[in-house]
Amino acid sequence: MKKITTLLKIEIIKLKHQRFPLFSLIFTLLFTIASALFRNRLSSVAGLGMGEATGWQILSYAASWGMQIAALLILILSINLVAEEFSDRTIKNILSRPVTRAQFFLGKIFTISFIVFIFVTAIFLISLIMGASLGDMGNLQERGYIIAKWHKLLLNFIAAFFLSILTLSAVGIFGAFVAVLLPRPGVAIGASICLYFVLNIAAQFDSVKNFLFTNFTNFPIDTAKEIAHGLASSWTPQIYWCLISTLVSSILFICLAVLLLKRKDILS
Q: ∠ CA(218), CA(220), CA(225), 5° rounding?
């Protein structure tokens, strides 16, 4: 575990000197802000049936779009994180030290999880600020009746953002696996994006959707979004499928990636 922690610290230092991760985060936050402003603007456009949005609804709308953009950028970041080690041949230097291939890859996974945490936290905070600035963050009411109290709504969004760390991490781990399978960055990015969209299309079919991690990428924030709109939405039973699908997929991708790394002739 100490070696993996050391690898994580090295990766964080490397990230500080790269422009793309920072650019990706800034782009995601700007897109989230734009989504909040756009949703607030729709409230005053007649004929769209949107109605005046509460702060919670603006928060959920902005966060939903922010998460979708973040998923694609995290996929690309994860691929670059692994594939560049092959293209720059730096993986030879790492593995020539007392670091196993499993430790090398787990170090990357911990780094991906760290990146996801930063993205999710930033999206949550920006969405919360935009919601509070543009709308009412009090109790959700309809015709004078309280549908949901503000603290219940807040707890649902906190739960959604914590669960989003897991679902977005699964996307990143998928990207890291593809990068091991296809170690050229350009090829890996193209292939992974195509596969990601194919899996998203497949997730539209009821017979297989519960088994695909891509079906749950936006599930947490979408569930909180429905609650914020006063719909009779429940976390169960889909949350169980979400946990099972994302965890099993993540473990499977990690195991396959480590197996591929062990079979590759890297040091020659």
A: 90
Residue 78 near residue 176 (C-beta atoms within 8 A) = yes
- pLDDT interval class at 262 (50, 70, 90): confident
How many helices (H) and strands (E) the chain has is answered by 9, 2
Find out whether 242 and 220 touch, Cβ atoms under 8 Å.
Answer: yes
Q: pLDDT per residue over 33-72, tens digit each?
A: 999 998 767 654 444 444 578 899 999 999 999 999 999 9
Classified as helix, coil or strand, 186 is helix
Helix axes 150-181, 185-202, angle to 10 degrees: 130
Tokens 């999710």 correspond to 120
Q: How far apart are CA 56 and CA 185, in angstroms?
A: 39
Q: With helix as H, strand as E and coil as C, how does 32-77 read?
A: HHHHHHHHHHHCCCCCCCCCCCCHHHHHHHHHHHHHHHHHHHHHHH
d(CA 158, CA 161): 5
Extract the tokens encoding 181: 């399978």
**Which amino acid is residue 256, in one-letter code?**
L
Question: Can you tell me whether residue 264 is helix, strand or coil?
Answer: coil
Question: Nearest-CA neighbor of 221 among 153, 132, 172, 148?
Answer: 153
What does the block give as tokens for 234? 């429940």
Three-class SS state of 188: helix
Whole-angstrom distance, CA of residue 53 vs CA of residue 131 = 9
Give the three-state DSSP class for 200: helix
- 27 contacts 68 by C-beta, under 8 angstroms: no
Which amino acid belongs to residue 137?
Answer: M
pLDDT one-digit tens code per residue, 143-172: 778 888 999 999 999 999 999 999 999 999
d(C-alpha 102, C-alpha 256), whole Å:
11
